[in-house]
Design brief:
four-stranded antiparallel beta sheet, three-stranded antiparallel beta sheet, mainly beta, elongated, 2 helices
């Protein structure tokens, strides 16, 4: 195990996650085998944000499955939630300045993180949700969210309603 450990969390199943001094997340299984630089991924980030979560090895293999974050010890839950928040960067679109006509459409928006421009390949990459929110995936796979179409200003609402 690294000596420069800054944060760790133990699971009820006997495995442990360690954030080392370099910011890397490592996994130590119940038998003491260490897996360097693992990823933490939500299985269903939109429909089940509090779990389940998978711990994935650098080679893509699943190391552990966490059915629910709420059932984990607080130190492990905190570590998992921090890792997920960094990984799941999801800007919220607050205003739509413009959307080009031809596909791929070019969007100019104001997000909760400032102004941004991106392209959307197809209208299939714009997914309206039953709760009135919208997820938009750009040509690089980056996702954006509109919390509520009804909550947008009139100009923005008109632009997005043409597309969804």
């Amino acid at each position: 195990m690294p000596n420069d450990t800054t944060t760790s969390g133990d699971s009820p199943e006997g495995w442990r996650l360690i954030r080392d001094g370099h910011g890397r997340l490592d996994f130590v299984d119940a038998h003491g085998r260490e897996h360097i630089d693992v990823d933490v991924l939500r299985a269903f980030p939109v429909t089940a944000p509090s779990g389940p979560v998978a711990i994935i090895a650098a080679d893509g293999g699943e190391l552990a499955w966490v059915q629910s974050l709420a059932t984990q010890p607080s130190s492990l839950r905190t570590l998992l939630e921090r890792e997920l928040s960094v990984r799941e960067f999801l800007p919220v679109i607050e205003r739509i300045e413009s959307v080009s006509v031809a596909e791929p459409t070019e969007w100019s928006v104001i997000t909760d993180r400032g102004p941004h421009r991106f392209r959307v390949a197809h209208t299939d990459d714009i997914a309206r949700q039953p709760d009135g929110s919208v997820f938009i995936t750009d040509t690089f796979g980056m996702r954006y969210r509109i919390l509520s179409i009804a909550g947008l200003d009139l100009h923005s609402r008109r632009l997005v309603e043409k597309l969804v």
